[in-house]
Write a structure and sequence with these properties.
590 residues; alpha+beta; OB fold (Dihydrolipoamide Acetyltransferase, E2P); BirA Bifunctional Protein, domain 2; Gyrase A, domain 2; 3 domains; eight-stranded mixed β-sheet; five-stranded mixed beta barrel; 16 helices
Length: 590
């Protein structure tokens, strides 16, 4: 055996035992010729002592050890000298008095210290196999494993089958950009890597499986950020003969099981529900972080008769005037105001109106246009006080909400940076966002598009509005939100082929030949006695990032890509041989 115990296992109750440990040299210290080695494995650290008075040859060999050498040590468990115990270590009450040492492998000097967190991420990703040795990364992957085991155990108890579906699928380009895979056996034809198993899982319901789940690899060729990778993992599931209430109950129980297993935290059930309309109206986003205030306030009635042309023209066109009060942010710099303005413009606004309350005065280019009655109304509705910064949004309702929603998040960041606000720590604010619009109108293409996906069923009482007022139709779509992060989303599906066909051709205006090419098999399947069904997909990487307190999902994945989609360790993607392209009937252009 290489070892009898792991490096976090031994305690004072083991004093007197002869043991064998194996692992990496975490550190080496020379105290007057006595060599102390901190030996590390996946589980933790144990201190090893090499005393030249007991074995000079062994101590000399230990003196030659360096960081990340792989060694095997034999010795006796002894108590640490009084006053030298390390209460920060599980093994801090003991040490190993070494009687044997074997170097299993040497190591070059690591390119970065493994005990520091402030290491450049690209360097960490280049040497990911070293980065993974850090206790923080081991902890993250341990939590990932525990969460996955909790999910599998819970769903098995709920009578689900775990079933794998194909990764090579057909292209359906109306969604996110896909990764295409050329087929050598079918020249000039392509697979697409699945964005999700959506259609396959519905077909499993048609096939009578009734309860399916999968730890699914999904692929999207999108611009990357902290919570997005080109390949990611979903907990994907689907059930037959259920409604939305069944989904809510199941997922709330699953989440509670995961939080209990990984953090020993009791999640409060059931989760509250917030309508899409309420979320947008109050927070300006459909996945709001409710751990801080800065709620949007509607001021339309205050400016109904205003002489301020910017606000009045918006209201006359059927829009709204809304604002947030960023309390304590009046000392914001001009550069930060400009940054907020550019953010508003990037969301479609023409600019950003603001008011600072400083030294008992309102400072703003727009204040001169306000009447005393309007000022009084603003003061009351926004609870304006010394040090406040008021930020306005004026546009059609949805646009105004969306602009202020992004401004709200940025203002919260600025307040936190200034030490004037802090999100509640240790709070897990789970809630469902429901009653999304089924369709939205695409002005550029002059047609309706599905806000979730085209297989989402409308709310039953809204079906009659499909022909007369499609934008008022609510979909049976639901998102699970936690602390401003969308953990997952799903819907009750359309299970009748005729209705699905009608949605494609009459409402979404997908030409019949294209609908047949992309979804014909799906529509036909629904005509063969498809049961009522629905499901959800949870973003597993995002879930684990929250459990571990990680700001990026890259820190909870073993081998992620960087923000340019590159695996810096293996240098993928890379060039291929001309012969490989020739076999695939592909030519490249400079």
């Amino acid at each position: 055996m290489y070892r009898t115990h792991h490096c976090a296992e031994l305690r004072t109750t083991d004093i007197g035992k002869t043991v064998t440990l194996a692992g990496w040299v975490d550190s080496r210290r020379d105290h007057g010729g006595v060599i102390f080695i901190d030996l590390r494995d996946r589980e933790g650290v144990t201190q090893i002592v090499f005393n030249p008075e007991l074995n000079a040859e062994l101590a000399a060999a230990a003196h030659a050890l360096r960081s990340e050498y792989v060694i095997q040590v034999e010795g006796m468990v002894v108590a640490r000298l009084s006053g030298t115990e390390n209460k920060n270590l599980q093994t801090g009450g003991i040490e190993i008095q070494s009687s044997g040492l074997k170097v299993l492998n040497s190591s070059e000097v690591p390119p970065f210290p493994l005990d520091e967190d402030s290491v450049n991420e690209d360097l960490r990703l280049t040497y990911r196999y070293l980065d993974l040795r850090r206790p923080r990364m081991i902890h993250n992957l341990r939590i990932r494993h525990q969460a996955l085991q909790a999910i599998r155990t819970y769903l098995d108890g709920e009578r689900f089958f775990e079933i794998e579906t194909p990764i090579l699928f057909k292209s359906t380009p109306e969604g996110a950009r896909e990764f295409l895979v050329p087929s050598r056996l079918n020249p000039k034809k392509f697979y697409a890597l699945t964005q999700s198993p959506q259609q396959y899982k519905q077909l499993l319901m048609v096939g009578g499986i009734e309860r399916y789940y999968q730890v699914a690899k999904c692929f999207r060729d999108e611009d990357l950020r902290a919570d997005r990778q080109p390949e990611f993992t979903q907990i994907d599931l689907e059930m037959s003969f259920i409604d939305r209430e069944d989904i809510y109950r199941l997922i709330e129980g699953l989440v509670a099981a995961v939080w209990k297993k990984t953090l020993n935290h009791e999640v409060s059930l059931p989760f509250p529900r917030v309508s899409f309309q309420e979320a947008m109206n109050t927070y300006g986003i459909d996945k709001p972080d409710r751990r801080f205030g800065l709620e949007l306030v509607d001021l339309s009635d205050c400016f109904a008769q205003s002489q301020f042309k910017v606000f009045r023209s918006v209201l006359d066109a059927g829009g709204v005037v809304k604002a947030i009060n960023a309390k304590g942010l009046a000392d914001i710099t001009q550069g930060q105001i400009e940054e907020l303005t550019e953010l508003a413009k990037s969301q479609g606004a023409k600019g950003l109106a603001w008011i600072k309350v400083e030294a008992g005065q309102w400072k703003s280019p727009i204040v001169k246009f306000f009447s005393e009655a309007e000022k009084a109304a603003l003061t009351e509705k926004l609870n304006m006080e010394e040090g406040d910064l008021i930020l306005f949004g004026a546009d059609l309702w949805l646009s105004a909400c969306e602009v202020l929603g992004q401004i709200r998040l940025k203002a919260a960041d600025l307040l936190e940076q200034a030490g004037k606000m802090k999100r509640q720590e240790g709070v897990f604010d789970f809630f469902w966002v429901v009653d999304f619009p089924l369709l939205s109108f695409d002005k550029e293409n002059q047609r309706y598009v599905a806000t979730h996906h085209p297989f989402t069923s409308p709310v039953a009482e809204d079906v009659e509005l499909l022909q007369t007022n499609p934008e008022k139709v609510r979909g049976q779509h639901y998102d699970l939100v936690l602390n401003g992060v969308e953990l997952g989303g799903g819907s009750i599906r359309i299970h009748q082929g005729a209705i699905q066909e009608k949605l494609f051709t009459e409402l979404l205006k997908i030409p019949a030949d294209i609908a047949e090419s992309r979804f014909g098999y799906m529509v036909r399947a629904l005509k063969f006695g498809a049961p009522p069904h629905g499901g959800i997909a949870l973003g597993f990487d995002r879930l684990v990032a929250i459990l571990t307190g990680s700001s990026s999902i890259r820190d909870v994945m073993a081998f992620p890509k960087n923000n340019k989609g590159i695996d810096l360790m293996s240098q993928a993607p890379g060039e291929v041989e001309p012969r490989q392209l020739r076999d695939l009937y592909i030519q490249t252009k400079e």
